[in-house]
Amino acid sequence: MLVRGLLAGLAVIAALSAPAADTTIGHTDAITANDPGYAGQWGVQHARVNDAWSAVRGDARVTIAIVDTGVTKLPDFGTRVLPGHDFVNNDDDASDDNGHGTMAAGVAAAGGNNRLGVAGICWFCQILPVKVLDATGAGNYDNFAAGIRYAADHGATIISASFGGNEDTQGLRDAVDYATGKGALVIAAAGNKGTTQPHFPAAIPAALAVGGVDEKGARYSWSNYGASWVDLTAPGCNPAQQRNGAIGQYCGTSSATPFVAGVAGLLAATDPAPSASAIRTALTTGARNGQVDAVGALAALPADGDTTGPAVAFGALAATVRGLVTVGAAAVDQHGVTHLEMYAAGRLIAVDRAAPYSFTWQSPLSGLIALELRAYDRAGNMTTARRTVRADNVAPAVTVYPNGRKVTARATDASGVARLELLVNGKVAGSYAGYLRQFTIPAGARTVAVRAYDKAGNLRVATVRR
Predict the structure, then answer these.
(1) Among 37, 306, 368, 400, which has the minimal tally of Cβ within 10 Å of its Cβ?
(2) What SUPFAM superfamilies does the record point to (predicted)?
(3) Catalytic residue selected from 54, 160, 223, 254
C-alpha cells in the first residue's frame, strides 16, 4: 500500500519569526542556548526542556532513530549521524532528498549551545537515519514496518516515526511489537487531518501516539486527537534546519513526534538507564494536562539504583558579609532534588524544598564562618558545597585631628576601609577612597564630622570639635 507521509502538516518559512514564550513557567536553573534559532523555540520553554537541560542533555549511548525521508548530515549534528539504510532505493545511503527527516532529526537531536542552527532536545544523542519515504513524502507499509524493525535491530533506544496512514495492518503491528520487544520505544505521529480517526502506527497500543499543541497549550486544529488512542501532546511548530542549513518553521504532528522523542532521549540518558516502558510511563505520568513536560517526566522516572548525587552550588555571595544575609543556591539532579539544607559554623540554619533555593542567615559579630549546602535527591544521595565568608558587623575605628581649616581623618578596620567622607552641616562635602585623608573645611561650616565605611558596609561617624 502506498501512502503519503505527514508532509501536508509541514510548513517551511524562510524568515523565521519568534513566537512569544510561555511566561507562566518559572525557569530557576534554566539553560538559555546560544543557537541562532533558539529565540523562536517556544516549545523548549513550554515543555520545560531548558530546565531539564540543567540536569541532563543526552548521552552518546542513546540512539534516536529518525524513520522518515532520510537525514542530511548538517554541522549541527556533528559526528552523531550513524550509518543508516534507505528502504526506498534499497541501499545504505539514507541521505534526505525531501527535507522532512532532516528537520525531524534537528528537533530531536540537533546540538545545543554550539552557536549553530537550533538547539535540539537531546544534544548528545546519536541519530540513526532510516529512509522509508521518498522525495515526495510517499511510502508504503512494507517499508514502514521494515524501517521500524531495522531501527530496533541497530540499537535504537527511541524510534521517531513521523509517517503513517489510516489503515491498520498486522505487519505494522508486528513491527512495533518487535521493536518494543527489543527494548525500543516507538513514538509516532497522530496525523494532521484534525479528526479523531485513528492513524497508524500511532494508534497501535505499543506505540506512543503524539498530537500537536500551540504555545498556549491548545490543540492545533490540524492535529488528530482522541483520548482513546492519542497518548501525549507536544509543541507542534518548532524551528529546525532544512537540508541547506536554513532555519524554517517545522509544523505538524511530524514535528511534535521528534520533540517527544528528544525528551525520551533525555530520560534514556539518565543513570541507571531506564527501560523503554519506564520512559513511556514517565512521559505520560509526568505530563501536564496531557502535554509533555521534561521536568515532570524526569521526576517520574524510578530512582532505584541511582547513586549519583545532585549538583549544588552557592549563588553570588560576597566574601565579607554583615547583618541579615540572603544566601542563594542552585541544585539539579537527573531524578529530582528533594531539598537543600544550609549550615553555618556546623549549625543547621534552614531547609528549602523548592527552587528557587534561598536561605536567610543572621551573621555573627565578626570572624571567619564556614557555610555548607547539602543537597538531597529522591534516592537519598547527598552532595555538599562549601564556602567560607568573613562576618563583619563591627564599624571601623575613626580618629580625627582638627587643625584650623584642616582636619585629618584616619580609620582602621579588620576587613579594610572603603572610604572616608567629610560631612559639613549634615551634607557630604568631600569623599576619599582610602583610610587616611586630610580634608579642608569650607567657610561657613557650623557642624563638621567624618564618616568612615568599611568594606562590609559598616559605618561610624566621628564629630570634629573646633
Answers:
(1) 368
(2) Subtilisin-like (SSF52743)
(3) 254
Which grid coordinates are listed for 87? Answer: 528502504
Distance, CA of 151 to CA of 155 (rounded, Å): 7
Active site residue 271: no
| Distance (Å, whole) CA 132 – CA 143 | 6
Looking at 35, 51, 68, 86, which residue is catalytic? 68
pLDDT tens for each residue of 419-462: 999 999 999 999 999 999 999 999 999 999 999 999 999 999 99
Marked catalytic residue, from 35, 59, 76, 100: 100
Last-in-domain residue among 374, 392, 410: 392
Task: Confirm whether 254 is a catalytic residue.
Answer: yes
User: What is the domain extent for residue 212?
Assistant: 2-300
Number of residues that make up the chain: 466
> For 248, what's the count of Cα atoms within 13 Å in the CB-facing half-sphere?
18
Answer with the one of 261, 281, 300 that is the final residue of a domain.
Answer: 300
Q: Which residues contact 218 (CB under 8 A, 6 or more apart)?
A: none
Please give the model's pTM, rounded to 2 decimal places.
Answer: 0.84
Q: Do 415 and 320 touch, CB atoms closer than 8 A?
A: yes
